[in-house]
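Methods — Computational structure assignment.
A single polypeptide chain was analysed. Its primary sequence is given first, followed by the predicted tertiary structure written as structure tokens.
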Amino acid sequence: LNSPTRYFLPSPHAPKPSKPTDPARSPAMESAGNDRRDAALGSLAVLPDELLCAIVDLLQPTDIGRLACVSSVMYILCNEEPLWMSKYLSVGGHLEYKCSWKKTTLSRLSLCSGNSELEQKARHFDGMVHLLYVCSICLVYLPIHTYFHAGFNSLFLYRRWYRCFTTLSSYSFDNGHVERKDDLSLDHFHSQYDGKGPVLLGKLAETWPARTKWTIQQLVHDYGEVTFRISQRSPKKIIMKLKDYVSYMELQHDEDPLYIFDDKFGETTPALLEDYRVPHLFQEDLFGVLDYEQRPAFRWLIIGPERSGASWHVDPGLTSAWNTLLCGRKRWALYPPGRVPGGVTVHVSDEDGDVDIETPTSLQWWLDIYPHLAEHEKPLECTQLPGETIFVPSGWWHCVLNLETTVAVTQNFVNQSNFEHVCLDMAPGHCHKGVCRAGLLAVPGKSVRDIENHPAGTMSAWNHNDMTRAEKRLKGSGSVRASNSANQCASFEFSDVHESLENQVFSYDIGFLSQFLEKEKDHYTSVWSPTNPIGQREAREWLRRLWVLKPELRGLIWKGACLAISVDKWYACLEEVSACHSLPPPSEDEKLPVGTGSNPVFIVSDNVIKIYAEGGLGYSAHGLGTELEFYDLLRKVGSPLINHIPEIIASGFLVYEDGVYRTVPWDGKGMPDVLAKYYPLELSYANSCFPLGLWSKQQFGMDSSTECSNKPIWPYMVTRKCKGDIFARVRDTLSKADLLNLASSLGVQMRNIHLLPLPHGEPLPKPEDNNVRDSDPPEWKQVISTLNGRKNNIKKHLANWGGTVPTVLIEKAEEYLPADMSSLIKFVKDDDGDSVYTFPCWIHSDIMDDNILTQRSLTDAKSTGDRDLEKLDAVNIIDFSDLSIGDPLCDLIPLHLDVFRGDIDLLREYLRSYQLPFLRGKSNNDIYKSVGNSKFSTASYRAMCYCMLHEDNVLAAIFGLWKDLRAATSWEEVEHLVWDGLNRYQQSSPTLSS
């Protein structure tokens, strides 16, 4: 124990010393410790210390203080620094470290006692029950040497304490196994290392100002007051001023120290970007065609103390990375793709492919697992020195341990070598993601014995009888004796055995990996993993921009687009539609979909071909049917909206049979034969003019369980291309006057939508629907049923947004929402108690910045005298496939949050031109007479309810636009700040009394 690092972190050139005797395991002390433990814990003594610590971690701080009164051993468990570190990380926020994690946490929670005298003295536990009580109530902390007076020994706590106080400064430098190269040419790098293996590169940073300026002292001098993001194992965001973080580094003794890992340093401290440049070997980055806010995180400033580091992982999205060290020393360990490190467990969700890595900390792996690995199981290793740059190829596992206080900068990138791998990782599904990380361990039917370098004996849990299909996991290689209780939970098993791979050796070749894609998945519309580095919308935009801006790479881009969005399938559909309707064949520039929506959309000459794929056949068929009915209605009533939407040229269904695509034209009227055998409807709907129109959609269209949902049939529509560009692309080029003009135009057009008469026919609710009553208006029944269903599960509904909504608001959601959602559309008269209902109307449901086209033109020279002055001339609306009926306030949600970005001036201009009351019925006078001061009639309250119950995560936009609302303690605060402008409109609108 006098030279722990020489044993636990051996140099490959030094003889391995024998294992020293652990005093915590001596028989006399073990016996005494067990006696004390049994007496102090009673029946709880049957639980291991690590489980007791995990249970204590579930408690609130005040309860932990009370539990510490129970006994001396419980006092020790309740005062562990890792426990209080965990308590703080669960709170998050701006961190100011106060010498210990317990002090820091209690101070943050305003529970800190002013009495600190007891903390300075060692205490003997015999006869100290009263002292324990006082210490626990005051929530003070006794130092580590107090524990040994209790006559209590814990190997678990001792090992953890050892990791907190061990030093790595005596670790001897060695050359390791990773090659070191200087003056490497770009051609040599691509031929020998890019996509093939790691390499340590010298001299790349010799001329950087950062080589001399990025010392801890200088950084604190220049940026001490700047706030940086902190990396930690917590979903809560932790930030610290640099000067406070450096103070923490000097004071802390954590087994897994916090370290700065900030991907926004270029925004908060742009001067740091001037101190380095991307080395010439890594300047190709295909994500660079995206706008900064669209591209995934790609560069990080890293500052960390001794013992900190990054645990085992594969870089996000299978990107490659370079990391340049400016000061200190780092120890690296690396495994090639598909080789799971010992002690690591890979969890893969069979729903969306989300990959979660369960791994010990970097220090724990080096101390507890590395020494027990056989020589052939050990990773590639190296010690990185100041000024050196390490290259980590796509898919390589790596683990980093800081041997000293270090400062580094790193960037991830996509180039031609890893482009297809990045696209493959984006694709929905799970099998291919597991294979990319865990190799052939992820193939069902494979055992560890089948795979080289994965010895027998580590898969005993794989076939455990108690493990269900959704609970199985992939464990790392090696016979590891060290205990790691966190690795005892499980997650999944893959389906669809690939028999052809029975004797196959794992390969990181894209041809091999792509075999594991789930071919039946619709890659364009299926849910993507939340851990993908880029979202679906951004990915489609990225591929399209690459296609336009990098024509020399189109062969490669096409291959990647086939992996990520199955573009080859949709292009075959495009060719069939173009041939059927005598459209010009698509040119080379027109082969990729445009836009960011959920359905493939192609522009061929002046025509737009949209293929309905979202939601399966039932959903998409009703989307087309409702859209055709809507267009027909516009023509019948002569709505001026007809001048601001695309002209329909053709529509129908694409059918894939016997390896051939064919088209079946359909204008929305009557039931098409291609659907009749798959999708039977009630006779009343089948015989209607638009059997798949609005009312049918309300009852059947959302049902994704219909037996035809996975049939190879896709509706399509061909329209003339409207002039103008998508608003999302030109937003930043428009002046405030242009934006006000846009808001005014949208107000007029949304008024025209909301004034349209509903089609004849009123659907009845499904018999099994218990969320509606016979007294509810027929046209509202489906809406009420849906809202009530979400309201009944509101806590789960809000929790599904992954931390978007503050916990305090989730707890108050039920009391804020009405008991029955019909209250939002039903009002009771004051005189006789009769109910008055508002009318629903057509609503677009998806009026966002990518469904609005804007066009600029020259103003009238006679009126302005300036022939060169441009203005926003035309505003057109596209994509009506999500048309529904409901409260017109629902259309204000995407408008205000996405199009207007919360700008109250734009909302006010929209309302000025909208000029309709928010509550409409057979008699508006009856409605406004009956509502009185009911909160249900308040526009802001109803809008807030719709936001909370929305099927999309609109609350993320609210808390993103109004960041101060993260501290809100009531929904009324959110309602007032976001939607109060609606109430002022309601009070002043001249149409309210009409």
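Note: The chain has a mean pLDDT of 80.
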